[in-house]
Design goal:
With 253 residues, the protein is of the alpha/beta class. It contains eleven helices and seven strands. Helix content is 43%, strand content 20%.
Length: 253
Amino acid sequence: MEKEKLLFYNEYEEFYKMAETSVAFQRFCSDSFGQDFSQDGFSNIEQIDMILPYIPTTEDVHILDVGCGNGKMLGYLQKKTGAFIHGFDYSQKAITYARALFTQNADFNVGIIGEIEYPDNSFDVVISMDTMYFSQDMSAFVGQIKRWLKPDGILFVGYQEGELIPKTIDEYTTELAKALKNNGMSFEVRNITKQTYELLKTKREAAIIHKPEFENEGHMQWFDMLMMQTKWAEGSYQQFEKEMARYIYVAKK
């Protein structure tokens, strides 16, 4: 598949170019999420730390991040656990930067969900933070991940509904839940919609604080993007919850 036809491909190429050099954006991420992982979403430090208990403390541990961006989240997990980190992303700019940042016990590749392949039984943990939506066939991709996981492997997913994916009744009726069930994967799920609403408000406040820095850098288009992304923070939680939902899924092979 031509990458230029994929969802937000050109936008993400520009995004990672900006994220590599923009001090304003790095400070915004630190203030919003607790640490700068070049986030374009809702992966704050609390959500990332939720992954840590699922990473084995034994030797020769391998974790894969689906849509890894520039690898900063994986680098954090590696520092905490000593795991060998793997990641793929469709953005060449993101992967080039990841390879420059993390050179030890790390493997980063340019790849497209549904097309890239890894050997069966390769990973102790596979992570997907706001990337499952990019699959053309979610059930087929979950089946692919299941093959990649070791026998006792874990799939950890941050998943949001209401924008790219229509909102369903609850966490057990989402497209991801259906895909997991179709592939015989048991799962636990946590509703973090309230925390996400509060994070939206934090993101909006941080963006406004750093607006002069974005302007001085000539990056006002990214400030405007942050304002658009956090527009729900201007309304009530009840309004947000009616249209949006966010969940953390932990599935077992």
